Amino acid sequence: MISEKMIQMTKNSSAIRAMFEEGKQMAAQVGAENVYDFSLGNPNVPAPAEVKAAIEEIINEEDSLMVHGYMSNSGYEDVRAAIAASLNKRFATSFSENNILMTVGAAGGLNVIFKTLLNPGDEVLTFAPYFGEYRSYVSNYDGILKAVEPDTATFQPNLEKFAQMITPKTKAVIVNTPNNPTGVVYSEETIVRMAEILCAKEKEFGISIYLISDEPYRELAYDGVFVPYLTKYYHNTIVGYSFSKSLSLPGERIGYLVIPDEADESGQIIGAANVANRILGYVNAPSLFQRVIAKCLDAQVDVAYYNRNRETLYRGLTEAGFSCIKPEGAFYLFVKSPVEDEKAFCEAAKKYHLLLVPGSSFECPGYVRLAYCVSYETIVNALPKFDMLAKEYGL
Amino acid sequence: MISEKMIQMTKNSSAIRAMFEEGKQMAAQVGAENVYDFSLGNPNVPAPAEVKAAIEEIINEEDSLMVHGYMSNSGYEDVRAAIAASLNKRFATSFSENNILMTVGAAGGLNVIFKTLLNPGDEVLTFAPYFGEYRSYVSNYDGILKAVEPDTATFQPNLEKFAQMITPKTKAVIVNTPNNPTGVVYSEETIVRMAEILCAKEKEFGISIYLISDEPYRELAYDGVFVPYLTKYYHNTIVGYSFSKSLSLPGERIGYLVIPDEADESGQIIGAANVANRILGYVNAPSLFQRVIAKCLDAQVDVAYYNRNRETLYRGLTEAGFSCIKPEGAFYLFVKSPVEDEKAFCEAAKKYHLLLVPGSSFECPGYVRLAYCVSYETIVNALPKFDMLAKEYGL
């Protein structure tokens, strides 16, 4: 009687909610400090001091009507210009404020761009494993998400399969690097080859294929790894960015889209995205935080904290006998389940109060995701539990 | 090639953008102080002092990870409980935090509830004149918006026509009181009769019809007028609220939905709305401002300022010979055009640098909307221009 699509969606999301509830129950029974919750991608490193200083400066020095008021649906011009200048400086791009659209986080940005691009039945490709919400974002606009099967040796995109899956119905490709859930950074070689494939297929089919780069983890990269800026490699790239992780502001819902001039129909896309932002009910990205991030474009959370977690957890898990790719970015580890049925493995882990997410949620069964955006103590205390779990499986 | 629906939507919204650009051009030519822009519903009364105090208190006293972090998609439990308690005190309702879903403004809330309720082809009724964005919000989910023609004598809903337009496909009715664009407050008599009609039609067709009350202007009511709280009159009422006008925070995108227990399928609707909030990409209402408004539930903008504008503008316009209903709420006046073609009248007004919105935008041609959320000086200085305009039409 209510939306049938939503009834279905609500059923599907009960698994995650069930785990969340289970964690809360577990914490009530054994104490929160004895539950090792690696299930949530919620930053545990606080926002840098610049954020608080920026808020204080703005509410004390800027006009309240301007700070909290409506602006253009695309966002404040000065904020968009500051972002464009920052990107140009970092990546030698040549964006102006016209190429930047402020959004309600990356999730809002992705919805805006899918609403702008997709006609019913259009196909969007992505690479397994991938963030499960993409399915909903594409389905919201009656598009069809198709996942390229993973190359589990490297978790770089499987480009051979990719090339085979592109059809005249392919409207967009969405990638996420550094990647959730693997922590892998797509290499420059991968990106160059992907761009070649896309250009060839655009020509072959006489279509435009937009490469959407979902980049909430861009600033979380370790060991000086190079994270290519995709607009430099492929003309039809659109970037979705979020400050949720780079400034630890996930609740504030602040991000932006980059729609470069060199994208096909860029003027039409920019105009339509602006309207989509309004009619989807975002209207505009939250105003105070637009002004805050403009003052914090050079600030960053304490990435060293995540890095220590990464090193400690990776070492501990591999020493215990588990196998996984060492992540170069984001705050996730994607561990091979010692048995094919990774859901059973997640169940077994719960005995030790270890909460893990099955790879099936990312269309990659046989693996589990650990989010290490937790306290260092949680990791140190969890490692003996992982040892016991490994022994149980004869590792 | 991009979304055909969005290309159409973008064309339709160019009229408003054109007026906005025209106003900017005009200001450049004759000086902003000589342009009398009554076109935008952007509050000109600053947020009350409590807002700034709340921001400072929160960033100084609360944990940054909690303040800027993820919470349940429905919002912070303590914030939702505070809102429920405030409503219960004011309206003798009996809501709990479970009935409150924090949203990205009222526009976000309306999108969430339409996504939750509508199946393709479902009909939503509203009363002309109405806020034009409703068309997009309903169309986003493939619903069909149908407008009941206005009763221009009172601008109370035309309930006779309303009763005739309800069919088995009617899923929802959306009302907005105090009303944009008329400033009329729907009377208790109107609401009681509307509820009777809805109950009878629910019974006749064996369906549920949800009454969605869009209430951004609830606190802007003058002369002590009674603004009924609709959940008290009809079981299937869902309220969409926004702090955009009550606290002058339109850019911050903060509001909530009330989904009462007595609504049919309320449990299912609450669950699905929670998921819709997430997958539409809002994820959650902006976190800092959730906490801010919880501290400001008894605060209010300076309504007396709007009231002085209302009295001055209404008196000036009627003395000049224009006719309009005296508004009891919101910050709009809906004036009868002296000629049938109100767009021509708006064009004529531009000669005096008066910017008005044609009633056609609200599906009510022959009238024009004036937003009086402008400075008092603008009104005082505009009145001689309205006099000249009136003389031109022989009023």
TrEMBL record, chains A, B:
Enzyme class: transferase
Cofactor(s) this protein requires: pyridoxal 5'-phosphate
Gene Ontology molecular function: any one: transaminase activity
Assigned EC number: 2.6.1.-
Database matches in CDD domains: AAT_like (cd00609)
Record has Methyltransferase as a keyword: no
Statement: the UniProt record of this protein carries the keyword Ion transport: no
Residues of the Aminotransferase class I/classII large domain: 35-383
Record key words, sorted: Aminotransferase, Transferase
Entries under InterPro entries matching the protein: Aminotransferase_I/II_large, NHTrfase_class1_PyrdxlP-BS, PyrdxlP-dep_Trfase, PyrdxlP-dep_Trfase_major, PyrdxlP-dep_Trfase_small
A Pfam family of this chain: Aminotran_1_2
Family label: Belongs to the class-I pyridoxal-phosphate-dependent aminotransferase family.
Stored PANTHER family: ASPARTATE AMINOTRANSFERASE YHDR-RELATED
Protein name per the record: Aminotransferase
Organism whose genome encodes this protein: Marvinbryantia formatexigens DSM 14469
